[in-house]
Design goal:
heterodimer; A: mainly alpha; MetI-like fold; 13 helices; 0% strand; B: mainly alpha; 74% helix; globular; cell membrane (chain A); BPD_transp_1_N (chain A)
């Protein structure tokens, strides 16, 4: 047991150098601004004197290593700088908009797992059947789909042609009042408030953007599930289990599927990286008020502090998520040891 | 001298024919690829309309015989713009992939051959780059360097470098002490010559597969960046920006403005992905699926 604690501790410790690297890169990005950062942060109307004052105020006159230490110090206090666009601290902006993005991302991932995992399993069990072919077509087409284009297409079909979906503008139609703020997830909040009408209104707004993201993530998950199931099904322990006369259902779900889960969970980590990027595009298409569309607005307005804050926040989120995934192996796989690393 | 290479290239050709006959999808992929290259090279000279010419009286007309893909909000011919855009989109992705191929190849070879200190530092750097969600990192790089097409290329190149470097590092590392490499060194070749001309060529086949798969991804990435308003500026025709312009009209039913550039983008990515699978069959029969 203590051995496992050590392994977990080691894995946690491994994230530290990566986190330091991430902070270093985002520091370099803020210092790589075209032209003079001081002139930029001083504003359009600044003269030479106020640019100089801004330089001293931001510590840009100091040597680089010292600037880096100041930058890290600011970060540790949760200071990501001020957004020029909203006039508020970047961290406040991001924290306010994060639930919207997470609600979208998580429901998309859930949706795509619900479709992709059974599809992959089915394709592996009935190898060579029409399900297998369907799986292959979906996988090849899925990786070629530009998310923003799928989103536009879905809007055309389900909003314009069929009229099933509400207008693709944000999280909730303007005739509804957002539920009282508890978690920031509208679905959870409206359910907590017992407001069925708002709940379904939220759900209707969520379906199209979540489906767009899910379509994008379907391919890697289905492919990995199929491959992992094929490997598991051809192993010796499955042959033994079958020979011992265990019912097929038990063999499939109790033995093969549990062993196939591991690579699938690993893929989920990689998929998350894509999703965080694709999120930006989907949020733009559906006018979703998350951190992705915040970053796009900031980019267009050259609001550097906001963009860099966003990049850093995403990277930290991704690193932590990979950590959680690695740690969750310990739950899935009792043999776990991080010895191989 | 003259007759020895002949059977070899003949058998390589026979192998190509065999693989293509075995897998007609690969043949289609190569045909599509030829089509896209042709569009990029001669497209701007053969399109029926000027891609930049506006005509207010013809704004947002649906597809017809004169305007195959219809016209956009300024009356520009969508078909001409889609075809002309091929050159820019392919240029961005090819330039980006070429940059990451060269830089990643050199760094990976250095790390794999000399190892030690270099290897550790480079690995850490690549780990850090991969720790970012890659599209988000590309956004950050473009924001920091400035909003131009060149910077889109650099950003796309940077986020792809780790893949090439890792691949080359592994391929070079396993052959560092191989018999042929030691023989080459013994024959008096310098280390650089041994890496560059004896070991590195062995990494080329898997790298070509990676290139083909990467090209599709680079196009998606560049189009995504221009979709959110980075890099390419209007009125330049480019697929991502055309979908962005068309997205405004999709809710009022003018589907053709966004559909055709989006379809072309999809088809291009699809082509490169299929070609990558086909190339993998060619260079590595064991991994054939």
């Amino acid at each position: 047991m203590s051995q496992r604690a050590v392994a977990v501790g080691l894995r946690v410790a491994q994230t530290l150098p990566v986190l330091i690297g991430v902070v270093l890169i985002s520091f370099l990005l803020t210092r790589a601004l075209p032209g003079d950062p001081a002139a930029y942060f001083a504003g359009v109307m600044a003269d030479a004197e106020s640019i100089e004052a801004t330089r001293v105020k931001l510590g840009l006159d100091k040597p680089m290593p010292q600037q880096f230490i100041m930058y890290v110090g600011d970060l540790l206090q949760g200071d990501l700088g001020q957004s020029v666009g909203t006039g508020r601290p970047v961290l406040t902006d991001l924290a306010e908009r994060l639930p919207a993005s997470l609600e979208l991302t998580l429901s998309a991932l859930l949706l795509s797992c619900l479709i992709a995992v059974p599809l992959g399993v089915w394709a592996a069990v009935r190898q060579g059947s029409w399900v297998d072919h369907l799986c292959r077509v979906l996988v090849t087409a899925g990786v070629s789909l530009p998310t923003f284009f799928t989103g536009v297409l879905l809007i055309y079909i389900f909003y314009y042609l069929l009229g099933w979906a509400p207008s693709p503008l944000g999280r909730l139609d303007f005739i509804y009042i957002p539920p009282p703020h508890v978690t920031g997830f509208y679905l959870v909040d409206s359910a907590l408030a017992g407001d069925a009408e708002t709940f379904f209104a939220t759900l209707r707004q969520l379906v199209l953007p979540a489906a767009t993201l899910a379509l994008f993530t379907l391919a890697p998950i289905a492919r990995m599930t199929r491959a992992a199931m094929l490997t598991a099904l051809s192993s010796d322990y499955i042959r033994t289990a079958r020979a011992a006369g265990l019912p097929p259902r038990k063999v499939l779900y109790g033995y093969a599927f549990r062993n196939a889960l591991l690579p699938v969970v690993t893929t989920l980590g990689m998929v998350f990286s894509f999703v965080l990027g694709a999120n930006v595009l989907v949020e733009k298409v559906f006018a979703w008020p998350g951190i992705g569309s915040y970053a796009v607005e900031a980019l267009v307005a050259s609001d550097y502090a906001a963009v860099q804050g966003f990049v850093l926040a995403m990277a930290v989120l991704f690193v932590l998520l990979n950590l959680i995934i690695d740690l969750s192996y310990a739950l899935i796989d009792p043999r776990i040891g991080f010895a191989s690393k | 001298m003259t007759d020895t290479p002949a059977p070899q290239s003949n058998s390589a050709f026979a192998h190509l024919v065999y693989v293509l006959r075995d897998n007609p999808v690969t043949l289609i992929a190569f045909a599509l690829f030829a089509f896209f290259v042709l569009s990029a090279v001669i497209g701007p000279y053969v399109v029926p309309h000027d891609p930049l010419a506006t005509n207010a009286t013809l704004a947002l007309t649906p597809p017809s015989w004169t305007h195959w893909f219809g016209t956009d909000s300024l009356g520009r011919d969508v078909f001409s713009r889609v075809i002309v855009a091929t050159r820019l989109d392919l240029t961005i992705s090819v330039a980006a992939v070429a940059l990451s191929f060269v830089i990643g190849g050199v760094l990976g070879a250095v790390a794999g051959y000399w190892g030690g200190w270099w290897d550790i530092v480079l690995n850490r750097v690549f780990d850090t780059i991969m720790a970012f969600p890659l599209f988000v990192l590309a956004m950050g790089i473009v924001a920091a360097l400035g909003n131009t097409v060149e910077n889109i290329i650099y950003a796309t190149a940077i986020i792809n470098i780790p893949f090439y470097a890792r691949l080359v590092r592994a391929e070079v590392n396993i052959r560092r002490e191989a018999g042929f490499a030691q023989a080459a060194r013994l024959a008096g070749n310098s280390h650089i010559r041994v890496v560059a001309f004896h070991i590195f060529p062995n990494a080329l086949p898997p790298m070509m597969v990676q290139v083909s798969l990467n090209l599709g991804w680079a196009i998606l990435n560049a189009a995504g960046l221009s979709f959110i308003g980075l890099g390419v500026r209007p009125p330049t025709p480019e697929w991502g920006i055309m979908v962005a312009e068309g997205a405004n009209y999709i809710v009022s039913g003018q589907w053709w403005v966004a559909l055709f550039p989006g379809l072309w983008l999809m088809l291009a990515v699809f082509t490169f992905n299929l070609m990558g699978d086909g190339l993998r069959d060619l260079v590595d029969p064991r991994r054939r699926t």
